[in-house]
Design a protein that fits this description.
30% strand; 28% helix; globular; two-stranded antiparallel sheet; alpha/beta; 9-stranded mixed beta sheet
């Protein structure tokens, strides 16, 4: 793909993106594939330029409304343009998830959190975030028996799981592997206010074309491969 292209695509051309300061990574595609065919209202915490939500919208026709919250207005401006490019409507809220004053709860909350460490970028997104606090803030926005989905670096997975385990059940863990023998990313799902046990899946390779190129959900991809 040429760097001169102003518009590029994800999941086999089903989602279009304007090239900008921050371009989506495969983490966003994986998170949307993990959440899959969700239903009802969706909140995307730290929505950025909209990759997770726009990919998620291609997986489900049962989403009634997508809302995105982000601390960076410039990211939200880019997200609005990407949503328009894809013929999607997303409610965008410029707020810090830690201080957002709202009583709203959602059927589904997704988040590709800014867990990375380093110098804050010029787009003013969160860096060096308190992932435990971020997870708590996300879970406060989930309705009772609603669903939470996220993706993090494997070394930080316990930060999310330890917080989710206090108030959630049906916790599912899906590792993603790169060139190493150990997982590089971990997808996590949890359901608020239920008591089901945990499941650890065998996971798969991060460069899986069935997900990244063909745009299948993880459930559909495993079914296609004959894995239950």
């Amino acid at each position: 793909m040429s760097e001169k292209q102003e518009i590029f695509s994800l999941i086999g051309g089903r989602v279009l993106f304007n090239r900008g300061i921050y371009n989506p990574t495969s983490d966003a595609v994986w998170l949307a594939a993990w959440a899959g065919a969700v239903r009802g209202t969706v909140l995307d915490v730290g929505i950025g330029t909209g990759a997770v939500s726009l990919c998620l919208a291609t997986h489900s026709s049962d989403i009634s409304k997508i809302t995105g919250v982000d601390i960076s207005q410039s990211m939200l401006d880019a997200c609005a343009k990407n949503a328009e490019l894809n013929g999607q409507t997303i409610e965008l809220i410029n707020s810090d998830i830690f201080s957002w004053r709202t009583n709203r709860v959602f059927d589904v909350v997704v988040s590709n959190p800014p867990y990375f460490r380093g110098t804050p970028a010029i787009h003013n997104a969160h860096h060096n975030v308190d992932l435990r606090g971020w997870t708590r803030a996300c879970l406060r926005r989930v309705r009772p028996r609603g669903h939470f989905y996220t993706i993090v670096d494997a070394y930080m997975a316990t930060d999310v799981i330890s917080i989710a385990a206090d108030v959630c059940g049906d916790i599912q863990i899906f590792p993603l592997f790169g060139a190493k023998n150990t997982a590089e990313r971990v997808l996590i799902a949890a359901r608020l206010g239920v008591h089901g046990g945990s499941i650890i899946h065998r996971g798969c390779a991060m460069n899986n074309d069935v997900i990244l190129r063909d745009g299948l959900t993880i459930v559909d991809a495993l079914s296609k491969l004959g894995v239950q």
